[in-house]
Amino acid sequence: SITMPLSRHTGQIPESNWTLSFREMTEPWKGAVGCLGVAVFFAMTIGIISWQALEQSPEEWVLRGRAPPPPRDHCWHDGGQFCYSWEEDAELRLSLEPPAAPGTECYGVRWTPLRPDVTLKDCFSMANVSWYGGPSISAQRWPLNGAESPAQPFVSGDLGTNPDGFGPVLDRYFLGSTGVTVTVAPDVPLLLSLESHRHFCLETPAGRAEPLRYLLCISTDHHPRHPPPANRLFPPRRSPLWRYRGPEGSAAKIKRGLRSLVRRLKRHGLQEGVVALGERGTAILAAAERVPLERRKRQDPALVEPLQLSITLSPYASITSPLFLQSLHQGEAAGYWLSRQPRPGGSLIPLLTTWKGQLCARLNVTSEAALGWYLARARRLRQALGATYVIFEGVEGNSFLEQDVPPPAELAGDGYTRVLAAALVTLGNGTVVSAGASSSHLPLFVQMSPLRSDWSHAGLKGLIPSVLHYSLLGYNFFIPDTVGGSLAGESTRDPELFVRWLQIVTFLPVMAFGSPPWLCCDSWVLNLTRQCIRRHRDFVVPLLLKYSEEWQSLGHPIFRPAWWLSPTDPTAFTIEDEFLIGDEVLVAPITEKGQTWRDVFLPGEGHLWLDTNSARVFDGGTILRNYSASLAEVPVFVK
Fold this sequence. Notes:
The chain has about 650 residues and is an alpha/beta fold. Among the domains are: about 240-290 and about 300-315 and about 365-560, TIM Barrel; about 565-639, Immunoglobulin-like (Sandwich). A hairpin with an 8-residue loop joins β21 (about 340) and β22.
Protein backbone atom coordinates (compact mmCIF):
# COMPACT_ATOMS: atom_id res chain seq x y z
CA SER A 1 0.00 0.00 0.00
CA ILE A 2 0.97 3.63 -0.32
CA THR A 3 0.89 5.92 2.67
CA MET A 4 0.86 9.59 1.74
CA PRO A 5 1.57 11.89 4.71
CA LEU A 6 0.83 15.50 3.86
CA SER A 7 2.55 18.25 5.79
CA ARG A 8 1.70 21.94 6.09
CA HIS A 9 5.13 23.13 7.28
CA THR A 10 7.55 24.55 4.76
CA GLY A 11 11.13 23.72 3.98
CA GLN A 12 12.83 20.33 3.88
CA ILE A 13 11.44 17.23 5.51
CA PRO A 14 13.15 16.42 8.83
CA GLU A 15 15.70 13.66 8.25
CA SER A 16 14.56 11.69 11.31
CA ASN A 17 10.95 11.42 10.10
CA TRP A 18 12.04 10.62 6.55
CA THR A 19 14.39 7.80 7.54
CA LEU A 20 11.91 6.42 10.07
CA SER A 21 9.28 6.04 7.35
CA PHE A 22 11.93 4.40 5.16
CA ARG A 23 12.90 1.82 7.77
CA GLU A 24 9.28 0.87 8.45
CA MET A 25 8.60 -0.02 4.79
CA THR A 26 9.36 -3.39 3.24
CA GLU A 27 11.69 -3.47 0.25
CA PRO A 28 8.98 -3.96 -2.44
CA TRP A 29 6.94 -1.04 -1.15
CA LYS A 30 9.98 1.23 -1.02
CA GLY A 31 10.27 0.77 -4.73
CA ALA A 32 6.56 1.34 -5.28
CA VAL A 33 6.45 4.63 -3.51
CA GLY A 34 9.67 5.65 -5.11
CA CYS A 35 8.36 5.03 -8.60
CA LEU A 36 5.27 7.13 -7.96
CA GLY A 37 7.08 10.38 -7.30
CA VAL A 38 9.68 9.95 -10.04
CA ALA A 39 7.01 9.12 -12.60
CA VAL A 40 5.51 12.51 -11.93
CA PHE A 41 8.55 14.73 -11.82
CA PHE A 42 11.76 12.89 -12.79
CA ALA A 43 11.57 11.43 -16.29
CA MET A 44 15.30 10.58 -16.17
CA THR A 45 15.27 8.86 -12.75
CA ILE A 46 13.22 5.84 -11.70
CA GLY A 47 11.83 5.36 -8.18
CA ILE A 48 11.52 7.24 -4.89
CA ILE A 49 10.83 6.03 -1.38
CA SER A 50 7.82 8.04 -0.16
CA TRP A 51 5.22 10.59 -1.18
CA GLN A 52 5.07 14.03 0.31
CA ALA A 53 2.78 16.94 -0.56
CA LEU A 54 4.49 20.07 0.78
CA GLU A 55 3.46 23.67 1.01
CA GLN A 56 6.45 25.47 -0.52
CA SER A 57 4.55 28.74 -0.95
CA PRO A 58 0.88 29.59 -1.47
CA GLU A 59 1.46 29.16 -5.24
CA GLU A 60 3.75 26.10 -5.50
CA TRP A 61 3.18 22.45 -4.58
CA VAL A 62 5.55 19.55 -5.34
CA LEU A 63 6.02 15.86 -4.62
CA ARG A 64 9.50 15.06 -3.35
CA GLY A 65 11.62 11.97 -2.74
CA ARG A 66 14.95 10.23 -3.35
CA ALA A 67 15.89 7.27 -5.50
CA PRO A 68 16.11 3.68 -4.18
CA PRO A 69 17.74 0.74 -6.01
CA PRO A 70 16.50 0.12 -9.57
CA PRO A 71 13.04 -1.50 -9.87
CA ARG A 72 12.52 -5.04 -11.01
CA ASP A 73 10.05 -4.26 -13.78
CA HIS A 74 8.96 -0.88 -15.12
CA CYS A 75 7.76 0.93 -18.21
CA TRP A 76 7.48 4.49 -19.46
CA HIS A 77 5.04 5.45 -22.21
CA ASP A 78 5.37 8.70 -24.15
CA GLY A 79 6.40 10.57 -21.03
CA GLY A 80 2.81 10.51 -19.77
CA GLN A 81 2.39 7.05 -18.27
CA PHE A 82 4.54 4.98 -15.97
CA CYS A 83 4.06 1.45 -14.62
CA TYR A 84 5.74 -0.79 -12.12
CA SER A 85 4.92 -4.42 -11.32
CA TRP A 86 5.82 -6.88 -8.57
CA GLU A 87 6.05 -10.24 -10.30
CA GLU A 88 2.73 -11.98 -9.53
CA ASP A 89 1.43 -9.62 -6.84
CA ALA A 90 0.30 -6.27 -8.22
CA GLU A 91 0.90 -3.64 -10.86
CA LEU A 92 1.00 0.12 -10.35
CA ARG A 93 0.21 2.35 -13.32
CA LEU A 94 0.49 6.15 -13.16
CA SER A 95 -0.67 8.58 -15.80
CA LEU A 96 -0.60 12.32 -16.31
CA GLU A 97 -4.22 13.48 -16.62
CA PRO A 98 -5.73 16.72 -17.97
CA PRO A 99 -5.96 19.35 -15.22
CA ALA A 100 -9.37 19.75 -13.61
CA ALA A 101 -8.86 23.53 -13.36
CA PRO A 102 -6.15 26.12 -14.05
CA GLY A 103 -3.26 25.83 -11.63
CA THR A 104 -3.97 22.13 -11.01
CA GLU A 105 -1.86 19.05 -11.71
CA CYS A 106 -3.66 15.69 -11.84
CA TYR A 107 -2.35 12.13 -11.88
CA GLY A 108 -4.25 8.91 -12.40
CA VAL A 109 -3.33 6.10 -10.01
CA ARG A 110 -4.29 2.53 -10.87
CA TRP A 111 -3.39 -0.47 -8.74
CA THR A 112 -4.20 -3.88 -10.25
CA PRO A 113 -3.90 -7.07 -8.17
CA LEU A 114 -2.45 -9.94 -10.16
CA ARG A 115 -3.91 -12.58 -7.82
CA PRO A 116 -7.36 -12.79 -6.15
CA ASP A 117 -5.81 -12.99 -2.66
CA VAL A 118 -4.03 -9.62 -3.01
CA THR A 119 -5.79 -6.78 -1.17
CA LEU A 120 -4.97 -3.21 -2.14
CA LYS A 121 -4.97 -0.49 0.50
CA ASP A 122 -3.80 3.12 0.17
CA CYS A 123 -3.74 5.34 3.27
CA PHE A 124 -3.57 9.13 3.49
CA SER A 125 -2.13 10.71 6.59
CA MET A 126 -4.05 13.15 8.81
CA ALA A 127 -0.87 14.42 10.46
CA ASN A 128 -0.85 18.21 10.05
CA VAL A 129 -3.53 17.95 7.35
CA SER A 130 -7.28 18.45 7.67
CA TRP A 131 -9.49 16.34 5.39
CA TYR A 132 -13.03 17.09 4.22
CA GLY A 133 -15.61 15.36 2.05
CA GLY A 134 -16.16 11.60 1.83
CA PRO A 135 -19.05 10.18 3.86
CA SER A 136 -21.61 11.66 6.20
CA ILE A 137 -21.46 9.92 9.58
CA SER A 138 -23.25 9.85 12.88
CA ALA A 139 -21.95 12.68 15.06
CA GLN A 140 -20.57 14.48 12.01
CA ARG A 141 -17.14 16.08 12.35
CA TRP A 142 -15.50 18.95 10.47
CA PRO A 143 -12.87 18.12 9.42
CA LEU A 144 -13.07 14.31 9.14
CA ASN A 145 -9.90 13.92 11.21
CA GLY A 146 -11.86 13.32 14.41
CA ALA A 147 -14.01 10.55 12.90
CA GLU A 148 -13.53 6.83 13.54
CA SER A 149 -14.80 3.98 11.39
CA PRO A 150 -13.64 0.43 10.61
CA ALA A 151 -13.20 -0.56 7.00
CA GLN A 152 -16.67 -0.90 5.47
CA PRO A 153 -18.28 -0.55 2.04
CA PHE A 154 -18.44 3.03 0.85
CA VAL A 155 -22.21 3.01 0.35
CA SER A 156 -24.91 5.36 1.63
CA GLY A 157 -26.99 4.15 4.55
CA ASP A 158 -29.56 4.99 7.19
CA LEU A 159 -27.83 6.25 10.34
CA GLY A 160 -31.03 5.61 12.29
CA THR A 161 -30.78 1.84 11.78
CA ASN A 162 -26.98 1.65 11.52
CA PRO A 163 -25.34 4.52 13.45
CA ASP A 164 -21.88 2.99 12.95
CA GLY A 165 -22.20 2.99 9.17
CA PHE A 166 -21.98 5.76 6.60
CA GLY A 167 -24.84 8.21 6.22
CA PRO A 168 -27.12 9.07 3.31
CA VAL A 169 -24.95 11.72 1.63
CA LEU A 170 -21.45 10.84 0.48
CA ASP A 171 -19.05 11.30 -2.39
CA ARG A 172 -15.83 9.59 -3.44
CA TYR A 173 -14.10 12.93 -3.10
CA PHE A 174 -11.64 13.94 -0.37
CA LEU A 175 -10.15 17.41 -0.02
CA GLY A 176 -7.03 18.09 2.03
CA SER A 177 -6.18 21.45 3.58
CA THR A 178 -2.90 21.33 1.63
CA GLY A 179 -4.75 21.63 -1.69
CA VAL A 180 -4.65 17.89 -2.47
CA THR A 181 -7.79 16.12 -3.67
CA VAL A 182 -8.39 12.38 -3.99
CA THR A 183 -11.29 11.26 -6.21
CA VAL A 184 -12.03 7.54 -6.48
CA ALA A 185 -13.48 6.21 -9.73
CA PRO A 186 -17.25 5.59 -9.45
CA ASP A 187 -17.15 1.96 -10.61
CA VAL A 188 -14.48 0.80 -8.13
CA PRO A 189 -15.77 -1.49 -5.34
CA LEU A 190 -14.51 0.51 -2.38
CA LEU A 191 -14.02 0.09 1.35
CA LEU A 192 -13.17 3.10 3.50
CA SER A 193 -11.72 3.20 6.99
CA LEU A 194 -11.18 6.23 9.22
CA GLU A 195 -8.68 6.13 12.08
CA SER A 196 -9.09 9.25 14.18
CA HIS A 197 -6.27 11.79 13.73
CA ARG A 198 -4.05 9.20 12.01
CA HIS A 199 -5.22 8.44 8.46
CA PHE A 200 -8.04 7.34 6.21
CA CYS A 201 -7.61 4.35 3.92
CA LEU A 202 -9.04 3.24 0.59
CA GLU A 203 -9.31 -0.53 0.09
CA THR A 204 -10.62 -3.03 -2.40
CA PRO A 205 -12.69 -6.03 -1.20
CA ALA A 206 -10.68 -9.17 -0.51
CA GLY A 207 -10.86 -11.96 -3.06
CA ARG A 208 -12.25 -9.78 -5.86
CA ALA A 209 -9.07 -8.98 -7.83
CA GLU A 210 -10.56 -5.56 -8.57
CA PRO A 211 -8.30 -2.61 -9.45
CA LEU A 212 -8.12 0.43 -7.17
CA ARG A 213 -8.31 3.61 -9.27
CA TYR A 214 -8.32 7.23 -8.18
CA LEU A 215 -7.35 10.67 -9.37
CA LEU A 216 -4.83 12.65 -7.33
CA CYS A 217 -4.82 16.41 -7.94
CA ILE A 218 -2.67 19.14 -6.44
CA SER A 219 -3.88 22.72 -6.68
CA THR A 220 -3.08 26.19 -5.46
CA ASP A 221 -6.84 26.89 -5.34
CA HIS A 222 -8.48 25.48 -2.20
CA HIS A 223 -11.98 26.28 -3.47
CA PRO A 224 -13.67 23.04 -4.58
CA ARG A 225 -16.12 23.02 -7.47
CA HIS A 226 -18.92 20.56 -8.07
CA PRO A 227 -21.12 20.18 -11.13
CA PRO A 228 -23.93 22.75 -10.91
CA PRO A 229 -27.54 21.54 -11.08
CA ALA A 230 -28.75 20.54 -14.53
CA ASN A 231 -31.95 22.55 -14.13
CA ARG A 232 -32.96 25.51 -12.04
CA LEU A 233 -33.81 24.48 -8.50
CA PHE A 234 -37.03 25.49 -6.86
CA PRO A 235 -36.15 28.25 -4.40
CA PRO A 236 -35.53 27.83 -0.67
CA ARG A 237 -38.68 27.89 1.44
CA ARG A 238 -39.62 31.42 2.54
CA SER A 239 -42.01 29.93 5.09
CA PRO A 240 -41.37 27.05 7.51
CA LEU A 241 -42.15 23.36 7.40
CA TRP A 242 -44.26 21.88 10.22
CA ARG A 243 -44.11 18.11 10.68
CA TYR A 244 -47.40 16.51 11.67
CA ARG A 245 -47.10 14.55 14.94
CA GLY A 246 -50.82 14.02 15.61
CA PRO A 247 -53.00 10.88 15.68
CA GLU A 248 -52.76 8.47 12.73
CA GLY A 249 -55.28 5.76 13.62
CA SER A 250 -57.49 6.40 10.59
CA ALA A 251 -57.93 8.77 7.67
CA ALA A 252 -60.63 10.66 9.57
CA LYS A 253 -58.37 11.13 12.61
CA ILE A 254 -55.48 12.32 10.43
CA LYS A 255 -57.66 14.90 8.68
CA ARG A 256 -58.99 16.18 11.99
CA GLY A 257 -55.44 16.32 13.36
CA LEU A 258 -54.16 18.24 10.35
CA ARG A 259 -56.95 20.80 10.58
CA SER A 260 -56.40 21.15 14.32
CA LEU A 261 -52.68 21.86 13.73
CA VAL A 262 -53.52 24.47 11.10
CA ARG A 263 -55.98 26.21 13.46
CA ARG A 264 -53.35 26.38 16.20
CA LEU A 265 -50.72 27.73 13.81
CA LYS A 266 -53.14 30.45 12.68
CA ARG A 267 -54.02 31.27 16.28
CA HIS A 268 -50.32 31.85 17.05
CA GLY A 269 -49.71 33.97 13.96
CA LEU A 270 -47.88 31.20 12.07
CA GLN A 271 -50.36 30.63 9.27
CA GLU A 272 -47.78 30.29 6.48
CA GLY A 273 -45.73 27.27 5.50
CA VAL A 274 -45.96 23.58 4.71
CA VAL A 275 -47.47 20.81 6.84
CA ALA A 276 -45.49 17.59 6.29
CA LEU A 277 -47.27 14.26 6.65
CA GLY A 278 -45.14 11.17 7.37
CA GLU A 279 -45.10 7.93 5.40
CA ARG A 280 -47.61 6.10 7.61
CA GLY A 281 -50.11 8.95 7.53
CA THR A 282 -49.68 9.26 3.76
CA ALA A 283 -50.35 5.52 3.30
CA ILE A 284 -53.55 5.72 5.38
CA LEU A 285 -54.85 8.68 3.40
CA ALA A 286 -53.81 6.95 0.15
CA ALA A 287 -55.92 3.91 1.06
CA ALA A 288 -58.90 6.16 1.76
CA GLU A 289 -58.43 7.91 -1.58
CA ARG A 290 -58.88 4.68 -3.57
CA VAL A 291 -62.59 5.45 -3.95
CA PRO A 292 -62.88 6.99 -7.46
CA LEU A 293 -63.57 10.70 -7.38
CA GLU A 294 -66.78 10.36 -9.36
CA ARG A 295 -68.29 8.06 -6.69
CA ARG A 296 -67.76 10.55 -3.86
CA LYS A 297 -70.70 12.61 -2.73
CA ARG A 298 -68.51 15.69 -2.44
CA GLN A 299 -64.88 16.68 -2.88
CA ASP A 300 -63.02 17.20 0.40
CA PRO A 301 -61.73 20.76 0.85
CA ALA A 302 -57.97 21.23 0.94
CA LEU A 303 -56.68 19.58 4.10
CA VAL A 304 -54.36 22.30 5.37
CA GLU A 305 -55.49 25.59 3.80
CA PRO A 306 -54.08 28.22 3.88
CA LEU A 307 -50.87 26.19 4.33
CA GLN A 308 -49.49 23.71 1.80
CA LEU A 309 -49.25 19.94 2.21
CA SER A 310 -46.23 17.64 1.87
CA ILE A 311 -46.65 13.85 1.70
CA THR A 312 -44.06 11.10 2.21
CA LEU A 313 -43.45 7.97 0.12
CA SER A 314 -40.74 5.33 -0.05
CA PRO A 315 -39.69 2.63 -2.54
CA TYR A 316 -40.64 -0.06 0.00
CA ALA A 317 -43.88 -2.06 0.24
CA SER A 318 -44.78 -4.32 3.15
CA ILE A 319 -45.43 -7.88 1.99
CA THR A 320 -48.83 -7.64 3.71
CA SER A 321 -49.75 -4.30 2.15
CA PRO A 322 -52.50 -4.00 -0.49
CA LEU A 323 -49.91 -2.48 -2.82
CA PHE A 324 -47.67 -5.57 -2.77
CA LEU A 325 -50.55 -8.06 -2.77
CA GLN A 326 -52.10 -6.31 -5.75
CA SER A 327 -48.84 -6.65 -7.68
CA LEU A 328 -48.81 -10.38 -6.85
CA HIS A 329 -52.36 -10.75 -8.10
CA GLN A 330 -51.48 -9.01 -11.34
CA GLY A 331 -48.40 -11.17 -11.81
CA GLU A 332 -46.07 -8.18 -11.62
CA ALA A 333 -44.19 -8.99 -8.42
CA ALA A 334 -41.20 -10.52 -10.16
CA GLY A 335 -40.52 -7.46 -12.30
CA TYR A 336 -41.66 -4.66 -9.99
CA TRP A 337 -39.52 -5.56 -6.97
CA LEU A 338 -35.83 -6.25 -6.47
CA SER A 339 -35.22 -9.99 -6.74
CA ARG A 340 -32.52 -12.54 -6.14
CA GLN A 341 -30.93 -14.02 -9.22
CA PRO A 342 -32.73 -17.32 -9.88
CA ARG A 343 -31.07 -20.66 -10.23
CA PRO A 344 -31.13 -22.20 -13.71
CA GLY A 345 -34.72 -23.01 -14.52
CA GLY A 346 -36.00 -21.25 -11.39
CA SER A 347 -38.17 -18.16 -11.01
CA LEU A 348 -37.35 -14.76 -9.53
CA ILE A 349 -37.75 -14.44 -5.76
CA PRO A 350 -38.28 -10.94 -4.30
CA LEU A 351 -35.34 -9.74 -2.20
CA LEU A 352 -37.04 -9.05 1.13
CA THR A 353 -35.61 -6.51 3.57
CA THR A 354 -36.69 -4.67 6.71
CA TRP A 355 -38.05 -1.12 6.56
CA LYS A 356 -39.42 0.61 9.68
CA GLY A 357 -39.84 -2.71 11.45
CA GLN A 358 -41.74 -4.47 8.66
CA LEU A 359 -40.67 -7.12 6.15
CA CYS A 360 -40.77 -5.39 2.78
CA ALA A 361 -39.99 -5.65 -0.90
CA ARG A 362 -38.14 -2.79 -2.60
CA LEU A 363 -38.95 -1.20 -5.93
CA ASN A 364 -36.95 -2.53 -8.87
CA VAL A 365 -35.53 0.67 -10.33
CA THR A 366 -33.88 -1.21 -13.22
CA SER A 367 -37.32 -1.96 -14.66
CA GLU A 368 -38.78 0.83 -16.79
CA ALA A 369 -42.25 -0.61 -16.24
CA ALA A 370 -41.79 -0.60 -12.44
CA LEU A 371 -40.42 2.96 -12.41
CA GLY A 372 -43.20 4.20 -14.65
CA TRP A 373 -45.85 2.57 -12.44
CA TYR A 374 -44.28 4.00 -9.28
CA LEU A 375 -43.96 7.55 -10.63
CA ALA A 376 -47.50 7.51 -12.03
CA ARG A 377 -48.80 6.42 -8.63
CA ALA A 378 -46.87 9.25 -6.93
CA ARG A 379 -48.37 11.80 -9.34
CA ARG A 380 -51.92 10.51 -8.82
CA LEU A 381 -51.53 10.56 -5.05
CA ARG A 382 -50.05 14.05 -5.02
CA GLN A 383 -52.99 15.30 -7.06
CA ALA A 384 -55.62 13.43 -5.05
CA LEU A 385 -54.34 14.80 -1.72
CA GLY A 386 -53.60 18.26 -3.05
CA ALA A 387 -49.94 18.01 -2.02
CA THR A 388 -47.38 20.57 -3.17
CA TYR A 389 -44.33 18.57 -2.09
CA VAL A 390 -43.41 14.88 -2.01
CA ILE A 391 -40.66 13.56 0.28
CA PHE A 392 -39.11 10.22 -0.71
CA GLU A 393 -37.54 8.33 2.17
CA GLY A 394 -35.50 5.12 1.90
CA VAL A 395 -33.62 6.24 -1.20
CA GLU A 396 -30.29 5.33 0.41
CA GLY A 397 -28.63 1.94 0.83
CA ASN A 398 -27.82 -1.21 -1.13
CA SER A 399 -30.28 -4.01 -0.31
CA PHE A 400 -28.13 -6.63 -2.01
CA LEU A 401 -25.02 -5.67 -0.06
CA GLU A 402 -26.95 -5.75 3.22
CA GLN A 403 -27.83 -9.39 2.59
CA ASP A 404 -24.51 -10.37 0.99
CA VAL A 405 -26.21 -11.07 -2.34
CA PRO A 406 -24.42 -10.16 -5.60
CA PRO A 407 -26.22 -7.14 -7.13
CA PRO A 408 -26.84 -6.47 -10.82
CA ALA A 409 -24.01 -4.44 -12.30
CA GLU A 410 -26.12 -1.26 -12.56
CA LEU A 411 -27.01 -1.45 -8.84
CA ALA A 412 -23.48 -1.97 -7.50
CA GLY A 413 -22.41 0.48 -4.81
CA ASP A 414 -24.87 3.38 -4.73
CA GLY A 415 -26.36 2.55 -8.11
CA TYR A 416 -29.85 2.27 -6.60
CA THR A 417 -29.71 5.78 -5.13
CA ARG A 418 -28.43 7.29 -8.38
CA VAL A 419 -31.01 5.60 -10.62
CA LEU A 420 -33.98 6.39 -8.36
CA ALA A 421 -32.93 10.01 -7.81
CA ALA A 422 -32.59 10.55 -11.56
CA ALA A 423 -36.10 9.14 -12.08
CA LEU A 424 -37.65 11.28 -9.33
CA VAL A 425 -36.43 14.45 -11.04
CA THR A 426 -39.21 13.90 -13.58
CA LEU A 427 -41.77 14.72 -10.88
CA GLY A 428 -40.63 18.33 -11.07
CA ASN A 429 -40.12 20.97 -8.42
CA GLY A 430 -41.28 20.04 -4.95
CA THR A 431 -39.43 16.70 -4.82
CA VAL A 432 -37.32 15.85 -1.75
CA VAL A 433 -35.07 12.78 -1.38
CA SER A 434 -33.42 11.26 1.67
CA ALA A 435 -30.01 10.59 0.12
CA GLY A 436 -27.42 11.85 -2.32
CA ALA A 437 -24.65 9.89 -4.02
CA SER A 438 -23.06 11.49 -7.10
CA SER A 439 -26.40 13.24 -7.64
CA SER A 440 -25.66 16.80 -6.52
CA HIS A 441 -26.25 18.00 -10.10
CA LEU A 442 -29.93 16.99 -9.89
CA PRO A 443 -32.53 19.66 -8.97
CA LEU A 444 -33.69 17.92 -5.80
CA PHE A 445 -33.93 18.93 -2.16
CA VAL A 446 -32.17 16.52 0.23
CA GLN A 447 -33.55 15.64 3.64
CA MET A 448 -30.83 15.65 6.33
CA SER A 449 -30.43 12.77 8.77
CA PRO A 450 -32.25 13.02 12.13
CA LEU A 451 -30.28 14.39 15.08
CA ARG A 452 -30.58 13.75 18.80
CA SER A 453 -32.24 16.24 21.11
CA ASP A 454 -29.04 17.08 22.97
CA TRP A 455 -25.90 19.22 22.79
CA SER A 456 -23.52 16.52 21.50
CA HIS A 457 -22.11 15.98 18.00
CA ALA A 458 -24.97 13.55 17.48
CA GLY A 459 -27.25 16.51 18.22
CA LEU A 460 -26.81 20.27 18.00
CA LYS A 461 -23.00 20.27 17.65
CA GLY A 462 -23.29 18.05 14.59
CA LEU A 463 -25.61 20.41 12.72
CA ILE A 464 -23.05 22.91 11.36
CA PRO A 465 -20.52 20.17 10.40
CA SER A 466 -23.36 18.49 8.49
CA VAL A 467 -24.27 21.75 6.75
CA LEU A 468 -20.66 22.27 5.66
CA HIS A 469 -20.33 18.64 4.56
CA TYR A 470 -23.52 18.64 2.46
CA SER A 471 -22.66 21.98 0.84
CA LEU A 472 -19.04 21.01 0.08
CA LEU A 473 -20.30 17.94 -1.80
CA GLY A 474 -22.70 20.07 -3.82
CA TYR A 475 -25.95 19.50 -1.88
CA ASN A 476 -26.76 23.13 -1.13
CA PHE A 477 -30.53 22.87 -0.87
CA PHE A 478 -31.37 20.59 2.02
CA ILE A 479 -33.97 20.32 4.76
CA PRO A 480 -32.31 20.14 8.18
CA ASP A 481 -33.73 18.07 10.99
CA THR A 482 -36.48 19.70 13.03
CA VAL A 483 -35.60 22.41 15.55
CA GLY A 484 -34.55 20.74 18.79
CA GLY A 485 -33.80 17.39 17.09
CA SER A 486 -36.17 14.54 16.27
CA LEU A 487 -34.42 11.68 18.10
CA ALA A 488 -34.97 11.39 21.84
CA GLY A 489 -32.03 12.72 23.80
CA GLU A 490 -31.05 14.12 27.16
CA SER A 491 -32.46 17.58 26.44
CA THR A 492 -35.83 16.84 24.86
CA ARG A 493 -38.08 19.93 25.21
CA ASP A 494 -35.22 22.00 26.62
CA PRO A 495 -36.08 25.67 25.85
CA GLU A 496 -32.41 26.69 25.68
CA LEU A 497 -31.61 23.90 23.19
CA PHE A 498 -34.68 24.86 21.14
CA VAL A 499 -33.58 28.50 20.94
CA ARG A 500 -29.94 27.79 20.04
CA TRP A 501 -31.11 25.31 17.39
CA LEU A 502 -33.62 27.82 16.05
CA GLN A 503 -30.89 30.44 15.70
CA ILE A 504 -28.89 28.16 13.39
CA VAL A 505 -31.72 26.94 11.12
CA THR A 506 -32.81 30.56 10.60
CA PHE A 507 -29.83 30.81 8.22
CA LEU A 508 -30.45 27.52 6.36
CA PRO A 509 -32.60 26.86 3.25
CA VAL A 510 -35.60 25.53 5.21
CA MET A 511 -36.78 26.02 8.79
CA ALA A 512 -38.32 22.73 9.91
CA PHE A 513 -40.27 22.20 13.13
CA GLY A 514 -41.41 19.02 14.88
CA SER A 515 -42.80 20.14 18.21
CA PRO A 516 -44.38 23.61 17.81
CA PRO A 517 -42.80 26.23 20.08
CA TRP A 518 -45.91 26.58 22.24
CA LEU A 519 -45.56 22.93 23.34
CA CYS A 520 -41.98 23.15 24.62
CA CYS A 521 -41.53 26.73 25.65
CA ASP A 522 -43.08 29.95 26.92
CA SER A 523 -44.44 32.95 25.03
CA TRP A 524 -40.98 34.57 24.81
CA VAL A 525 -39.72 31.65 22.69
CA LEU A 526 -42.88 31.79 20.58
CA ASN A 527 -42.25 35.47 19.85
CA LEU A 528 -38.60 34.72 19.05
CA THR A 529 -39.74 32.00 16.62
CA ARG A 530 -41.89 34.54 14.75
CA GLN A 531 -38.91 36.93 14.57
CA CYS A 532 -36.61 34.21 13.23
CA ILE A 533 -39.14 33.19 10.58
CA ARG A 534 -39.34 36.80 9.40
CA ARG A 535 -35.54 37.13 9.37
CA HIS A 536 -35.27 33.95 7.33
CA ARG A 537 -37.87 35.18 4.83
CA ASP A 538 -36.62 38.74 4.44
CA PHE A 539 -32.83 38.43 4.86
CA VAL A 540 -31.67 34.84 4.42
CA VAL A 541 -33.73 33.63 1.44
CA PRO A 542 -32.67 36.53 -0.85
CA LEU A 543 -29.05 35.83 0.14
CA LEU A 544 -29.40 32.12 -0.69
CA LEU A 545 -30.96 32.95 -4.05
CA LYS A 546 -28.05 35.28 -4.82
CA TYR A 547 -25.43 32.63 -4.07
CA SER A 548 -27.38 29.89 -5.80
CA GLU A 549 -26.61 31.81 -9.00
CA GLU A 550 -22.90 31.56 -8.18
CA TRP A 551 -23.31 27.86 -7.46
CA GLN A 552 -24.97 27.32 -10.81
CA SER A 553 -22.31 29.26 -12.72
CA LEU A 554 -19.13 28.33 -10.83
CA GLY A 555 -20.01 25.28 -8.75
CA HIS A 556 -19.05 27.01 -5.48
CA PRO A 557 -20.92 25.88 -2.36
CA ILE A 558 -23.43 28.30 -0.84
CA PHE A 559 -22.52 27.44 2.78
CA ARG A 560 -18.77 27.80 3.20
CA PRO A 561 -16.24 27.04 5.94
CA ALA A 562 -14.07 29.71 7.51
CA TRP A 563 -11.06 28.55 5.47
CA TRP A 564 -12.85 29.60 2.28
CA LEU A 565 -11.68 33.17 3.01
CA SER A 566 -8.55 32.12 4.93
CA PRO A 567 -7.15 29.19 2.90
CA THR A 568 -3.64 29.38 4.37
CA ASP A 569 -4.55 30.03 8.02
CA PRO A 570 -4.32 26.76 10.02
CA THR A 571 -6.71 28.23 12.61
CA ALA A 572 -9.52 28.13 10.05
CA PHE A 573 -9.05 24.45 9.12
CA THR A 574 -10.70 23.03 12.25
CA ILE A 575 -13.47 25.56 12.94
CA GLU A 576 -16.72 23.58 13.00
CA ASP A 577 -19.10 25.97 14.80
CA GLU A 578 -19.15 28.81 12.25
CA PHE A 579 -20.21 29.03 8.62
CA LEU A 580 -20.33 31.57 5.82
CA ILE A 581 -23.22 32.23 3.46
CA GLY A 582 -21.35 33.03 0.29
CA ASP A 583 -18.51 35.41 1.05
CA GLU A 584 -20.48 38.06 2.86
CA VAL A 585 -22.28 36.75 5.97
CA LEU A 586 -20.65 34.91 8.86
CA VAL A 587 -22.83 33.02 11.35
CA ALA A 588 -21.18 32.00 14.63
CA PRO A 589 -23.89 30.61 16.96
CA ILE A 590 -23.60 29.29 20.49
CA THR A 591 -23.55 25.46 20.65
CA GLU A 592 -22.58 24.92 24.31
CA LYS A 593 -25.26 24.51 26.97
CA GLY A 594 -25.48 27.39 29.44
CA GLN A 595 -22.92 29.50 27.58
CA THR A 596 -23.48 33.17 26.71
CA TRP A 597 -20.09 33.93 25.18
CA ARG A 598 -17.71 32.41 22.66
CA ASP A 599 -14.57 33.12 20.63
CA VAL A 600 -15.34 34.16 17.04
CA PHE A 601 -12.85 33.72 14.21
CA LEU A 602 -13.31 36.42 11.56
CA PRO A 603 -11.84 35.04 8.30
CA GLY A 604 -10.26 36.89 5.43
CA GLU A 605 -7.26 39.00 6.29
CA GLY A 606 -7.83 42.45 4.82
CA HIS A 607 -11.62 42.19 5.04
CA LEU A 608 -13.80 44.19 7.41
CA TRP A 609 -16.75 42.66 9.30
CA LEU A 610 -19.77 44.53 10.65
CA ASP A 611 -21.28 43.07 13.82
CA THR A 612 -25.07 43.09 13.27
CA ASN A 613 -25.70 43.11 17.02
CA SER A 614 -23.50 46.05 18.00
CA ALA A 615 -22.81 47.80 14.64
CA ARG A 616 -19.08 47.67 15.45
CA VAL A 617 -16.55 46.87 12.69
CA PHE A 618 -13.70 44.36 13.11
CA ASP A 619 -10.74 43.28 11.00
CA GLY A 620 -10.72 39.95 9.22
CA GLY A 621 -8.04 37.40 10.05
CA THR A 622 -8.55 37.98 13.78
CA ILE A 623 -10.24 36.27 16.71
CA LEU A 624 -12.76 38.04 18.92
CA ARG A 625 -12.21 36.64 22.40
CA ASN A 626 -15.14 36.14 24.79
CA TYR A 627 -17.72 37.62 22.46
CA SER A 628 -20.95 38.03 24.45
CA ALA A 629 -24.17 36.51 23.07
CA SER A 630 -27.20 36.24 25.33
CA LEU A 631 -29.86 33.60 24.76
CA ALA A 632 -31.76 36.08 22.59
CA GLU A 633 -28.74 36.80 20.35
CA VAL A 634 -26.84 34.97 17.63
CA PRO A 635 -23.48 36.41 16.49
CA VAL A 636 -23.83 37.41 12.82
CA PHE A 637 -21.31 39.51 10.88
CA VAL A 638 -21.67 41.06 7.44
CA LYS A 639 -18.59 41.72 5.31
